[in-house]
Amino acid sequence: VQQSKMDFFCKLGYGKQDICKVLENLGQEALEDDVLKELIRMGSKPQALESQAQPSQLKLVARGSCSTTPGLKWLGDDGSDSSDSLRPIVIDGSNVAMSHGNKEVFSCWGIQLAVDWFRERGHTYIKVFVPLWRKEPPRQDSPIADQHILEELEKQSILIYTPSRKVKGKRVVCYDDRYIVKVAYEHDGVIVSNDHYRDLQNENPEWKWFIEQRLLMYSFVSNRFMPPDDPLGRHGPTLSNFLSKKPALPEKRWQPCPYGKKCTYGNKCKFYHPERQHQAQLSVADELRAKTKVPLALGKEEERCRCSP
């Protein structure tokens, strides 16, 4: 009998020591109700309730088999965050530098202005391509201004030199435009240049579409890099949508009706009527029909009331 009572109260969650004390006080023949009342009077709680009362200290474990340090950002090979919403930028360094130097001087300061403009917008992947022979000392036929900027951008892993060499005193230069289009195409980025790359468009039809849709032209206004607000024309996307991977949808704006309150199209009018916000936009004919039906209906109801006993 004692063992059965012990098992019963242990299933309820009470400790064996408390049960033994109560049975010694009340006797082995005590009823279960009396034992339970005594346990409650002693203030002993079931172990299950005690475990619920204690706040459990949860340990956050990062998902994955190899992740040991939480909050670690995984970067791609290009060093840009995978969650970045801005497109990679590939700059035609020769085109930008010559444009800033009025096609007379290779102005490296123009490249710096373009890089700073995209940095301020938050772009993390910026690459500038320049031929290797631009590292050589400037000559009279090819003057270079602010050549130290190229070294600084190269240290920052922004500027990349396209290969070139000399063979029997003649310079052999690789086509840097092909580097620019290929890298921008592979990274789904934007090409910054005023060149149309027509020769490369004829080589590859995929490049042709990419150059037409992802070429960002620019202008320099008083040492200020200024791309257009509508890179693909007046009816194309805005500059912010053009440079972002997930363009924001434009807000739907209704054009007000030129006729105003004199408009007779009713609900068929495609323009916006501010005076019809809280009323159904019915046509003029439907409004007249509705007005004529109301008095007719009232007259019929009055006749029915007169005829009814």
Automatic annotation (TrEMBL):
One of its GO terms (cellular component) is nucleus. The keyword Glycoprotein does not apply. One of its GO terms (molecular function) is zinc ion binding. Pfam families: RNase_Zc3h12a, UBA_6. The keyword Metal-binding applies. Residues 251-276 form the C3H1-type domain. A zinc finger (C3H1-type) spans 251-276. Its cofactor is Mg(2+). Keywords: Endonuclease, Hydrolase, Magnesium, Metal-binding, Nuclease, Zinc, Zinc-finger. Coiled coil: none annotated. PROSITE patterns: ZF_C3H1. Belongs to the ZC3H12 family. This is ZC12D ribonuclease. It comes from Acrocephalus arundinaceus.
